[in-house]
Amino acid sequence: MLMSSVVMVALFTAAPAPKAQSLTWKVTGSDVTFEMSSKDLRALRGGKEVFGLLSRKKGFLEDLKPDPEETRDMSDWEAYNSFKVLSVVGPWASYEESSSGYTGGAHPYAHSGYVTWDVTKEHGAFNLLDVFPEKDVLQALKADSFVKEHIDDAKAFNDAKSVKALMESLKPGEDCVGFRYGLDSVKRSVAFHHVEGDKVAVRIAFAYDNESCRGNMFVVGVLLPIPASLKPALERARTRQEGFLMKDARSAKAPSLSFEWEGADAKKP
After folding, report:
1. Which helix (DSSP H) or strand (DSSP E) does residue 145 occupy?
2. What pLDDT is recorded for position 247?
3. In the chain, at which end, N or C, are there fewer CB atoms within 10 A of the end residue's CB?
4. CA angle, corner 217, sides to 212 and 218, nearest 5?
5. Edge-to-edge strands of the sheet including 218-225?
6. CB of 141 within 8 A of CB of 163?
7. Separation of alpha carbons 267 and 66, rounded Å
8. How far is Cα 204 from Cα 217, in angstroms, rounded to an integer?
């Protein structure tokens, strides 16, 4: 009887753990359905994928496929690409993307940034300044202590009536912040962090200024008044009925994934 009990326990403990189930939700007022698992975030319209992270691996490897006429030694080449989902609000998927490696040339490359993608539109169509009045974004940026540390022209900073003019009044500083590319960062390199009363905390990621400081990323947090049109989607994300905010990404088990390639692989049969 004792032996039978031991065998039964062994069989029980050896049983494979059940697979983690994916989370699926439909975006209210749209034809978009999101599917999220521990390994991927996808958006589908009419059953067809219009946004996905794991599906990018094929393109990542295809871009690195060596030319048959390539004569250079590629054995020390390498490439790395990673994605970390930050927030999903309505049809907007925000994630941190990092890429690094060496594929010839004078030096390696490295870049990290946030991306917000409106899955109902082409990549790059999302614009934070279409969602919030520019004057509100401008005021919030002017009030940020990190931004104020980088003022190059105080008069231009105070007089700025647009985000573009504000960015032009800033300097990179010793930390090498890429404010000269800042307008595009404000438009698209964002994530929605949390709701605070009638305002939403938005994180904006600025890249580096020049190649000597490649790979650096600088995140600024601003509080913006929530437009009436955005309140329902933000509330559904805040309560995790549809999507989630950045502060809840970990508890929501938002996926992180990465792809790697080494030049030595190109020589393998």
Report:
1. helix 145-148
2. 98
3. C
4. 120
5. 190-196, 199-206, 218-225
6. yes
7. 9
8. 10
| Best CA proximity match to 161, nearest among 145, 178, 131, 141 | 141
- Give pLDDT tens digits for 187-202: 999 999 999 999 999 9
Structural contact between residues 193 and 87, judged by C-beta atoms closer than 8 angstroms: yes
Residue 128 pLDDT exceeds 50: yes
DSSP string, 184-222: HHHHHSEEEEEEETTEEEEEEEE-BSSGGGTT--EEEEE
Where do we find the tokens 């940034």? 113
Q: What is the pLDDT of residues 61-95, one digit of tens each?
A: 998 887 777 777 888 899 999 999 999 999 999 99
Whole-angstrom Cα distance, residue 117 to residue 122? 8
Phi and psi at residue 62, to the nearest 5°: -65, -40
What are 100-118's pLDDT values in tens digits? Answer: 999 887 889 999 999 999 9
Record the tokens describing residue 144, joined without a space: 């940020």
Q: Length of the chain in residues, anyone? A: 269
- For range 158-186, the mean pLDDT: 97
Q: Which residues of the chain form beta strands (DSSP E)?
A: 23-26, 32-36, 41-45, 48-52, 78-89, 92-102, 109-118, 190-196, 199-206, 218-225, 256-262
> What was the pLDDT predicted at 245?
98
CB 77 within 8 A of CB 101: yes
